[in-house]
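Fig. S4 source data, part A: sequence.
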Amino acid sequence: MPATTLLIIKQVIHEAKILLKQTDWTIANIAYSLGFDDLGNFSNYFKSKPGFTPLEFRA
């Protein structure tokens, strides 16, 4: 994977983690705010990097 792609993935995951920990937004709202139209796609994307689902990370 190109370095730029990895940097973007890392940044999106970082932003998701911040939103999950510091807001009471729904996971669907967080996904939408990060450019995902489908909650399932966001959950799979998130889980592929830190190894947790967004819900597990938030808990």
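Fig. S4 source data, part B ends here. The mean pLDDT is 93.
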